[in-house]
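hey team, just a heads up i'm posting the complex here instead of the shared drive bc the drive is being weird again. everything in one block, sequence lines first with there labels, then the predicted structure for the whole assembly after. its two chains so it's a bit long, scroll down
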Amino acid sequence: MNKAVNFFNSQFKKVKNFRITRKVFSYPYILFMLLFVVIPLVMILANAFMAGGSFTFQNFADFFSSPSGLLVLLESMLVGLFTVVICLAIGFPVAYFIAKYTKSGTLVLLFILPMWVNFLIRTLSTKALFDLMGIQLGLGTVIFGMVYNFLPFMILPIHTTLTNLDKHFAEAAGDLGASEMQVFLKVIVPLSLPGVVSGITMVFIPTISTFAISSLLSNGMVFLFGDSIYTKFNQGLYGVGSVMSLIMFAFVLVSNMFMNKFNKAQTAGRQLW
Amino acid sequence: MVKKVLANCYLYVILALMYLPIMVVIVFSFSNSTLFRFPNGFTLGAYQSIFTSPNTPALMSALKNTFLIAIIASVVATLLGTISAIGIFNLKRRVRRVVESVNQMPIINSEIVMAVSLMVFFALPFLSFMNGYVKLIIAHITFCTPYVILSVMPRLMQMDPNIYEAALDLGASQTKALFKVIIPMLVPGIISGFVMAFTLSIDDFIITQLNKTEGIQTLSTYLYEDARIKSLSPFWFAVFSIMFVVVLFILLSINFYNAKKLGNEPKNKVKHTVRNPSGR
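-- predicted structure starts here --
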């Protein structure tokens, strides 16, 4: 009996000595992330190399030898490319004009507002517009819908970079004899590159990976990579689906690397911490 | 001057084009038909049918699920995120870098990959005891918490570490210093993290669609189910209009509130919340 009390007392003392260092606060979340972020991704990785319970490259072979799968990838990348180019062509001037000519935050807000409306609502509204105008649904309407959905994601990062630009650079270039065009091309555009790069990533990745937009806006005729992944998993083809997810993941990592590189190069001098 | 006028023209034309689809929806929400004409004249029929159509029970249960999941997920994400941000902030540098990059994973990763990975994970046989709501709430916490951490972290970095030590020197216990000194200083970050988590959760479609079990619909998955095959029924026009107006109202009032608060400070840096682009 005494022994037991002693034991509990010693245990209790241990607990009391265990002071809450604040590092401990991160442990539950680290465990949570391990469970619900890392392990699921590792399972995708494992699934990609598994077929019938053994290690194999069969899934990769299946994906890369089927013309339909590669075609979907190619088509998605083309749609993504078109969307990015159009978004950049429309969005850069928008961001530039806002930063240069307007003071009010309301205008920026109006350009960003669609981001906060559910993308299904935006997409179905666009579809309603096409119905109203009697436009045949197809590849063109898909690209239009993508631009409509993702334009704010191009405008926002470019606008942020442009407003944080040191205005003295442009003034100095002007003082040194550059024409307005030269100032724009040789000073402002290069300095806005980090924003442009993150804009491109923020448009390209969701365009190829999103699901539902393309099929809604083309009556199921256009089928992009995201839809394709969904269908594969829905049909129970976990192996090939996982390979495709890995490809998507690789896209994400590569574009993110680019983004970080550009941002680091630009902010290295300014960031204090 | 001419340039400025032209620039403004360009901005307003683009803006008009961007809002054209939603304006069309709002205009025709008063026609109670899907024919884009006004056969019944100007009518509120579509708005009435939100409450009286055969779809009403399904719509209301979807609405209930959406808010139930969003409230639980965002509250848990905010608590977890705040505590973890303090913890992560105090980790050793190298460990911290690893944890922070894993934390970024749900944000940078494309949603479909997140969704299928969770789907595969939840399909594990020993997890079959979880019911549909639990799965969805866990999935939502997974993608909401990183945003909370990212909005609390800057406040921690701006904080003067001496303040915490001063509190300890003045006799506060560690717990007391945490609750009376650190947490109050984090409140703005915590609030914006919570708002972010809540909106992201309400807005989510892809992850919910892939991880929901039969019979549980949220607003977006129900909309998808209903509108995928046939075209939109008139009452959706009314629902869209209401939701758009609500979002517009909330964002404008946040903006005016901020403008008022910043009124006296010099406005040289405008900061905007960046959110994940994948359409959440």
